[in-house]
Amino acid sequence: RVVRQSKFRHVFGQPVKADQMYEDIRVSKVTCDSSFCAVNPKFVAIIVESGGGGAFIVLPLAKTGRVDKNHPLVTGHTAPVLDIDWCPHNDNVIASASEDTTVMVWQIPDYVPVRNITEPVVTLEGHSKRVSIISWHPTARNVLLSAGCDNLVILWNVGTGEMLLALDDMHTDLIYNVGWNRNGSLLVTTCKDKKVRVIDPRKQQIIAEKTKPHDGTRPIRAIFVADGKIFTTGFSRMSERQLGLWDLNNFEEPIALQEMDTSNGVLLPFYDADSSIVYLCGKGDSSIRYFEITDEAPYVHYLNTYSSKEPQRGMGFMPKRGLDVSKCEIAR
């Protein structure tokens, strides 16, 4: 067969129409490799610029259009907010991590509040430097992970505000990203010491690690894809952007390694486990590429690219239950 069989040969991207957009949002100018934007079936949250402290704005998905200059913000941090993440089990709960070393968890009301939300439900203190990564546990309720520039990964019980465990002696340098596997039994982390580590948080030990999955010096990102494989994005020695697919049972050699282009933005991977498609977006890029991951060579199949006129400043990935399946939408 000349053409590979695939359900996704004709996947295409489509921007929303002008009346469905939000306008006049002052996106934060902090230089941080996080996605700046988080979305769920009710709200979209975006980290915004704010004088003296850090803030993010929460907008209901139902109410699009021009955003009022005085729209209430979520302000409680004393330094810029670096990452936000919606709770997967409760659409009204969001966590934020900040340069002020704290993590705060917020309850967002269904109505648009009149004034700024300044009181978090709980403030989690335990990091000694800025906290740049935050991620809810995918299956266990009230479990939140945070990782900071103090090379610490901390798991919190949000219900009581207590630290469940701290993984402190595993990373020797700045942590670039942390990802859960599908049921939350393992973590994958990438670090400035050029290692990708797979950690079992219950045993508190590293069960696999790979040094230099990509030869370049720029940041690496890694996520779990189906059946325990790991997908990475990074840079080659010639500063070309690469993607890699790795098997935990044989971590030495990649299953697939592809060069893409020579742009210098870090590629953020978003993975959809149901269709096993990875979407790659980079800040400053004006395109989003998508690849299908399969069990047959060449394992990572390029599907298509969505291109826009404007460069991207941040990305958020809608959970499956927020999609309009009657229009055959598979990702937003």
UniProtKB/TrEMBL annotation:
Top-level taxon: Eukaryota
WD repeats: 74-108, 124-166, 168-209
Swiss-Prot/TrEMBL GO biological process terms: actin filament organization; cell migration
GO molecular function annotations of the record: actin filament binding
Keyword terms: Coiled coil, Repeat, WD repeat
Pfam families, per the entry: DUF1899, WD40
Tagged with keyword Protein biosynthesis: no
InterPro entries named in the record: Coronin, DUF1899, WD40/YVTN_repeat-like_dom_sf, WD40_repeat_CS, WD40_repeat_dom_sf, WD40_rpt
DUF1899 domain: residues covered: 1-65
Family: Belongs to the WD repeat coronin family.
Protein name per its UniProtKB record: Coronin
Species for this entry: Sterrhoptilus dennistouni
Organism lineage: Eukaryota, Metazoa, Chordata, Craniata, Vertebrata
